[in-house]
Amino acid sequence: MKKGIYIENTPLEKALELWEAKTMSSMRAPLEGEAVPVFESLDRVTADAVFALISSPFYHSSAMDGYAVRFADTFGASELTPKKLALGEQAAYVDTGDPLPEGFNAVIMIEEVNRTNGHGPGEGAADREYIEITRPATPWQHVRVIGEDIVSTELVLPENHRLRPVDIGAVISGGHTTLSVRRRPLIALIPTGSEIVEPGAELKKGDIIEYNSRVLSSLVTQWGGVALRTAPVPDDIEKIKAAILDASERADMVIVNAGSSAGSEDYTARAIAGTGEVLLHGINIKPGKPVILGWVRGKPVIGIPGYPVSAYITFNLFAKPVIYRLQGLPVPRPPVINARLSRQVASSPGQEEFLRVKVGRVGKDLIATPVSRGAGVLMSLVRADGIVRVPAMSEGFGAGTEVGVEMLRPEEEIENTIVCIGSHDNALDLLANVLRKKYPRYSLSSAHVGSMGGLVALKKGEAHLAGTHMLDEKTGEYNVAYIKRLLPDRKIVLINLVYRQQGLVVPKGNPRNIRGFEDLKRQDIVFINRQGGSGTRLLTDKSLMELGIDPGEIRGYQHEEYTHMGVASAVLTGIADTGLAILASARALDLDFIPVANERYDLAIAAEYLQDEKISALLEIIREDRDFRGAVMSLGGYDISDIGKVMYEQ
Amino acid sequence: MKKGIYIENTPLEKALELWEAKTMSSMRAPLEGEAVPVFESLDRVTADAVFALISSPFYHSSAMDGYAVRFADTFGASELTPKKLALGEQAAYVDTGDPLPEGFNAVIMIEEVNRTNGHGPGEGAADREYIEITRPATPWQHVRVIGEDIVSTELVLPENHRLRPVDIGAVISGGHTTLSVRRRPLIALIPTGSEIVEPGAELKKGDIIEYNSRVLSSLVTQWGGVALRTAPVPDDIEKIKAAILDASERADMVIVNAGSSAGSEDYTARAIAGTGEVLLHGINIKPGKPVILGWVRGKPVIGIPGYPVSAYITFNLFAKPVIYRLQGLPVPRPPVINARLSRQVASSPGQEEFLRVKVGRVGKDLIATPVSRGAGVLMSLVRADGIVRVPAMSEGFGAGTEVGVEMLRPEEEIENTIVCIGSHDNALDLLANVLRKKYPRYSLSSAHVGSMGGLVALKKGEAHLAGTHMLDEKTGEYNVAYIKRLLPDRKIVLINLVYRQQGLVVPKGNPRNIRGFEDLKRQDIVFINRQGGSGTRLLTDKSLMELGIDPGEIRGYQHEEYTHMGVASAVLTGIADTGLAILASARALDLDFIPVANERYDLAIAAEYLQDEKISALLEIIREDRDFRGAVMSLGGYDISDIGKVMYEQ
């Protein structure tokens, strides 16, 4: 085991400056042009200014259906003294777009003309056809003159311009059939690691399915480059060096994924140093610290960390600007909106944190809610609407702080998102899916903070609705007492979603023979708990109290999960022997289940949003959609006899 | 010549409602799914919800480089009472990502551990290796537990979701190698017209280069569909009918381009009626009135007008929603910003006009300036930043009215655009191109309204700078007197760009033997004038006055063009025999030139923007860039001895 590489903590800003200076001074950018057919140039970038070779139109043509005339022949025509123009000599029928016959210089619209022969008032011979006009034409009226659209030699597109559909029309119209566009930047992606396997391989413990290179390849494509992914390279410094050297011949930039840290099998920094130069190793960001910036045989080489969120963030920070610069394009900056944080965020000073957040519009306010912060949680990026940067010098933000959010989704989608904060139920995921299917414009975003957290979010105006299942012991009724107590001055409508079974989830076959809460006292049993404020935690604590069990006696009581699936997953994977969750979660993971209670799960909706179109759409699905009901029933353990029914209103 | 088709004037809103109702009720949408490799699914749309097949990670793994331990073995360790754990039995080295050995349930970071043998304090045998720890581990610390990222059976992506790079990672991580995505909508595009020719063909008068189908194809691609372009079909109703029938077999929607009006060769409406049903023909929009909505053998068929702007606008209005609906996606709406109109816009009531505008940020204000309104001017779309809709009931807007602009370019680009309003010079186009090349982030947008119009725009805060060449007869100096008079209370810096030659542009060889302004009196000479307020018009009027010529005597004096190139083009194409313009414009079109005056062309810059980065970049190019100077000199007729010099400051 070789150690001895210590990674730095260079401030992000300094690292970006260094990288920009190096790439600006040492790369030939932008790339040279290549000729492509204009038809195939969509989204490519002009390598030269495009000037028109011909005018458009390139002949005078009629802008109307009508008659081409010489305007001088029309002088004196009026309602009282109509004038006849001989067809063929003085007037010629033209359709829109037809060239004007030589010598003609105006068009009279067909609607303003009578076809006639020489009979009747005005001059003209009886054997010929005429048009009769009642007012003079002005020079060049209704004529598309040469160059009306584009004048030959005119600048059609500047250099460094990304071609849009209309640009393609203009370039063709200007007489071009091919176009010089920048060669696409070639970006080599080298996945490394002896443990990585390709998707679809037979999996064994210790294998890691390689997908980072697929995410990074897709980003390269989106940014206008071409990704050259190599076969995975095992943790062998000579093989990694060879791969870097080979890639540096073929590509404009080389990306080595993983092995960028300082572990015993992290060879990337040494491989870059051994083939070229390491400019920097380690920056003060989180996630993404162990990034490596290097230079090998005239090409930029980046060592990208292995955790998927770290990989995504560092690739955006360091690879994206290079790919744009190679194309002669400005680096697009993400749109930033201001939002209010729904919860406090503590952050360790000394590192700039890239916090993933969900963003929702509730009334006038944009609310940002942090999602998982783990560098290994790719789903935090999938679920996120944006990123909040917590500065290196900061210890975090208090709840309610206004923060800038770099958006990952268009603001329009945010406006069309229903914000549901509170207790989780698997039926909510189905509801989200049916909503999206039936109303593609809308989506349901749910944050799982427990029933109490949901009602607090409603109170603070941070959610449209909250899922809740809190039993009031005095009345024996669910939710109503808590709404009265916590939200006395808000108009709330409480609508039932489901009744569901809660119970102790145990491994298949119940190997430890758990029969109920009383078994939690056993020292051979490890419990997994739910977080304080969740309805399920309330049910746990109430059950323990009734049995006179001191939570202090229970192993694992301190270990909290945030969702039913989290509890079931902990049981499945042996982290715990049992935990309280809904039947659907046990069914989903094929676990056994000891029923404890049948409980009511309602949605508390802020009444002011009932007329909102997206909330109406949601209620319509809850109340009427057969697919949704069928899907809920097939989860197991649900009773939907009151689905959509108003249980309480205030 | 058959006539007899009269097109309607259906209100746009009614037409959109009718079309939506028909497509919703008569199409099978969204389209069915097809399996594709996950790697190739970027930007495709999920046809089913995607659930995880496996958890990620699917085994407990170390989140750090360090030692896997059983947390129970670590109890009691402290700084004072360090504990030794035997390597192999009680502790095992793990790299980040390594699976935890069976039975181990915590990881201690390598930095917190001393490797040691049994010697020294603490228990342990001298012949074995140990790690020494100084505090206990908590259960599952530094462990990525199974399902930390994705729990098996969890919803990874909903149906109708367009795949982003991170989604591809999540789907692979969830155990998938293929994915069911919506089949891409197939859109048949049938270009029609006996006069159309393919790009690159030998051109003769009357030919129209076919490019609409290339613009529409590119839009189809951008919207996620596949364009099936057929060979052009001549104006023959039977051939058009056959093409529609064939396309309706192969595609999900059929687009017939042009022939949608009511002229003698407009067969599209009859061809649709003859193969299916015309739902509607003609809507109250401008441009784009003669659109046809039809239905043939279960497929939507749209007759799209031939003018390029009409084609673009109607395709966006009627084809785009169908293409998105077929994919199960919401129809994206363009972002709308509010801007102030820089000029009055008159519009004919009864038609909703789609006005193309340039948009610029000058100080705090966003300013929208209309560009050409012709349906045939594709460059109006190329140059436009957005579209302002003038409602059907409106007679237009006054200057200064705040209007909503549907944006065609990202707002970031608008913010980085220098707004130059005023007199035109060919050197400005070169400057725009060099700016874009050297600073891809910035662009220079120039509106050509003449010198006077430019100074007025500066006064009203609608431009950063203005090109101007106005000779004050009293002082004999250019521009200064006008700035003093028109902008007495603005801080202005006047910087020279070029000295240039103005003269009479005449056809090659000067066939009418024009020697100077005195020849304009001749009745065989047609003049082309510049608009009032332009410096060139001032020069014309001054020259005529000095010669004692009454403008009323000059044929064509009333006919105004807005640019030097417009004047030169009119001479080239025979619209006029001569006009006053700069030498560069005559050179560009290979025309002859009779010098009249050498004049100074300056840029008047509002001093408050001198520190602005984009203005600094522009001045740097003017003052220092050799490429720019070389390009200006090669245009001909320019003297750049004072380029970049401050001529006046107030």
Account of the 3D structure:
Chain A has 650 residues and is of the alpha+beta class. Chain A has 16 helices and 38 strands. Helix content of chain A is 26%, strand content 28%. In chain A, the strands form 11 sheets. In chain A, strands 31, 32, 33, 34, 35, 36, 37 and 38 form an 8-stranded mixed beta sheet that branches. The interface between A and B is large, with 118 and 116 residues.
What radius of gyration of chain A results from the CA coordinates? 35 Å
Principal-axis shape of chain A equals flat
Fraction of helical residues of chain A: 25-40%
Class per helix and strand makeup of chain A = alpha+beta
Low-confidence stretches of chain A: none
Q: Characterize the largest beta sheet of chain A: strand count, sense, and whether it forms a barrel.
A: 8 strands, mixed
Question: Which pair has the most extensive contact?
Answer: A-B, 118 and 116 residues
Oligomer: homodimer
Mean pLDDT of chain A: 92
Strand content of chain A: 25-35%
Q: Ends of chain A: how far apart? A: 67 Å
Give the helix tally of chain A. Answer: 16
* Total E-strand runs of chain A: 38
Describe the secondary structure blueprint for this structure.
The structure is a homodimer of 650-residue chains.
Chain A: H1 12-26, E1 33-37, E2 50-51, E3 61-62, E4 66-69, E5 83-86, E6 91-94, E7 106-109, E8 114-117, E9 129-133, E10 143-144, E11 155-157, H2 165-173, E12 178-182, E13 186-191, E14 196-197, E15 208-209, H3 212-222, E16 226-229, H4 237-250, E17 253-257, H5 268-275, E18 277-281, E19 285-286, E20 292-296, E21 299-304, H6 308-326, E22 336-341, E23 345-346, E24 352-362, E25 365-370, H7 378-383, E26 386-390, E27 396-397, E28 402-407, H8 411-415, E29 417-422, H9 426-438, E30 443-448, H10 450-459, E31 465-468, H11 480-486, E32 492-506, E33 527-530, H12 535-547, E34 560-561, H13 564-572, E35 578-582, H14 583-588, E36 592-606, H15 613-624, H16 626-635, E37 638-639, E38 646-649
Parallel strand pairs in A: 13-16, 13-17, 14-15, 17-21, 19-24, 22-25, 29-30, 33-34, 33-35
Antiparallel strand pairs in A: 1-12, 2-11, 3-10, 4-6, 4-7, 5-9, 8-9, 18-20, 20-21, 22-28, 23-27, 24-25, 24-26, 26-28, 31-36, 32-35, 32-36, 32-37, 32-38
